[in-house]
């Protein structure tokens, strides 16, 4: 009797022009990966050839660090992720040059209207034939508030309260039309069946939305919903709403705890553990030997000045002046954060556990933004991935690259074949939609369900 | 001495699945043109082969007539333009399958945030290599308000006030970065030149927006701005901000007056008449003879029941119960409108001038939404277009089709070659950007200009 091994899900987190803050300075890096759409398309098509489940774009609706830039801090002119293509327009464009890969973009619930978001992601699902996903976030950085009429950032708890209601409205709008609502019957002249069109009539604390959405039910029922918050309200929101959870996990035991905790919360929302795929980030640094991989990583770190690393860390240290602490002293304690709470906690836990200096913390955060770095041979990296998968620490990984395109191509050409050889990653797409490939059910339209 | 004749600009207004409300019922019509992206792409590529300046999508953020549908009016289940692809995502996707044609989408200033709109259109300009345009509108239909937390529609004057400020913010954000701001210098590690990044720091009645936009200056300096409002504040906003004006004009003299009026207003904003291209809509019905064309039009009209026509007219007759008036009586007077003001005036002027019955007005509006219908041979249609062009009634036309794809293909394959033969339409694109083809200047970045 052969039982099929548990299969990895893989996302390509396209953190262009490189997730490592000095990655773009690598001799092989192409820094134009931040804005050149043809290069984005190249990555998407490479990911599709490698059979990734999905590509994924994070997002912020501001230039990060603009407060500091305004105050005259020139260190930040050495940070690379300043401008980028807006992710939803980018997804729609990438849909045209790809056929199977999933397409997930971030859009904030803090500074958008649910009708607009429901509609845009529905449209991308239609354009892509059922491959679209929405990474639902609450805005994380203070800089964003200033672009949306606010002096200060919205309180963390209120952001989550709004996010939950935002999701309910979006999910409700996605059920505006049953799958067979449109008749387009030339003979009778009837375009649609009124019984299969549904008003939402949502009246809540943050939103009053009548509907119906002016977009039909989508090819995969509705777009996939991803989430990345790992704080207490973030976990609860994920259990309630998410199909995919992106997370930063560096330790096996903590990852297992997170995995069990989030999946364990699903029951109270009438969902099952299999309804959520948990995908921590990993950053591969591949060498022919362990030593060569370490040398590669060291060479990258050598491109990163301490002051740039510290400037990047400052995003997570609001409330104290991180620049006033000695670089080789201990990582100072932080006041409670109002944004990126879980990431901040991860950083502090790592610093305490490993007894790291401020310099070490800053350089580590700049290198991987809190994600796990796997420095080693193809075999070592595959071992680590397999270990976590089989230990129920994850359902798969979000692969994040230090720069583009070299490490991205190397992972696709070297690590993925090894995962396939081990029988833990697909050798062909399971189906045409993102839900097919992730093994997720097509959600029933609530009105069709009520009809019985 | 040969002087080049004044050249037509042509837009393809893709009013899918057909601008004529019964067009989709035509035996040759493909009603799936409302949602099938592959069909949208086919239209865009046909338009590009025909050398159109641009394609254009209108938009509303609601299902039209939802009030009536909610009240149980089943007539509206026979109206075809109920759902559609969201235009900005669609533009981005169409950019990938085209190389030269302009890509213009509508986005409302009433129910969006300027930062999001500035960014999305900037991104599409980057993705398309400088072919993007934004049709700036204020929301026209009452149904939209209910999807955005409002019980009633925003007052007309306030919508325009907000629109002006919205435009100022968007235009300001588009100047956030000078063209040479990004250095990406691996050696020094400097990513961008701080002197060429600019905060907006806008503080207004409707918006407080700090900036900078997280998108660089676009390939054509900034996206083209189109506008379609023809009311008094609409004309003023156009003179101040628009590169293109879409308008509904059915009479030569009125079109000449509109043309002169809008162009005449440009001076007060430091602009010239050439800075605005005025493009009325036309709907062609092409026959090998005039009689055949008329028969085609009559056959189309025969597919349109009176009650469906009346339901469509009701959009422009808020404030009275249009259904209570006798169909063969005179068109009743209307109270002052709060939306689609100029279109309503056009309809009333037409009704009075031609002494039309309610039935005639309803059928005329359903057939062409207030636009001019040219029923005749290729020669007749080209004559009409040339006459208006040479009479300074327009800079070109927005071509609107009763259904797809037949009339669209016929115009491309028959009328455009005739326009080319007459020397009033291009035989090759002038350049890679929409501004190149429209003959519009690339706007200088305000900060680069100030630098001198």
Automatic annotation (TrEMBL), chains A, B:
Query: Protein transport: present as a keyword of the record?
Result: no
Query: Which InterPro entries does the entry link to?
Result: Diverse_substr_monoxygenases, Luciferase-like_dom, Luciferase-like_sf, NTA_MOA
Q: Name one GO molecular function term.
A: monooxygenase activity
Keyword annotations from UniProtKB, A to Z? Flavoprotein, FMN, Monooxygenase, Oxidoreductase
Q: Where is this region: Disordered?
A: 212-233
Residues annotated as binding FMN: 59, 106, 156, 160, 230-231
Q: Where is the Luciferase-like domain?
A: 26-389
> Its family?
Belongs to the NtaA/SnaA/DszA monooxygenase family.
For this entry, the protein name equals FMN-dependent oxidoreductase, nitrilotriacetate monooxygenase family
Q: Which organism is it from?
A: Falsiroseomonas stagni DSM 19981
